[in-house]
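dumping this here before i forget
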Amino acid sequence: MPLEEKKSLAQSKLLKKIIPVVMKDGFQHLKMEEISKLMDVSRATMYKHFSSKEEVIAGIARIFVDYIDQLKLHPLQVEEELFGISFQQLFEQSVSLAGKISEVFLKELQNSYPDLYDNLRSALQQREQQSLEFYRRGIDKGIFQPVNERFILLQDELLLREIMNTKYLLQNQTSIQQVLTDYYQFKKVQLFLPEKLGLVDDQLILPVIDHVAEKYNRTL
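structure:
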């Protein structure tokens, strides 16, 4: 393995140790000493990989950009029977992004490192554009309800974050698995024309929801 690739993998391994804390509490308050403790390495080892706090945050932003860039849908010129699969794929991606990138991180990134924020926002916007084109294609083919596709994206951005919040789950005495199942059914009925609901095989999404719920519960 090339030296540069080894270095990148080592950096990613360290960054992934602190991402949960940064997503939950932000990074403004963190000092380099605290970051090294969260990474579970000495300060000397940490400084071998990151020369500054900005480099740490840049590394986290890069991980997210790379992840978003890998999110792909089936080509837009798809057969009708593939719309159900693509819908579920998009649902899974939306849930994953809502669980990975927190609002507090985005706000602090925008305030402290606007260039990093712009790069991450650009990646998110490219994915949003792909999603909009998918929804528009479904409307044009008579598969989806003729709804405002931008409202669908906004709904994912705002509602998913809310229902995946621990406070919401506790207040409503429900589980992450239940709210994701309910939201999936809500989106499916909201989006597909009644006569096209047969294109969606719900059995395919159940293992995905179970996996997300398991990962979520491990972080509590």
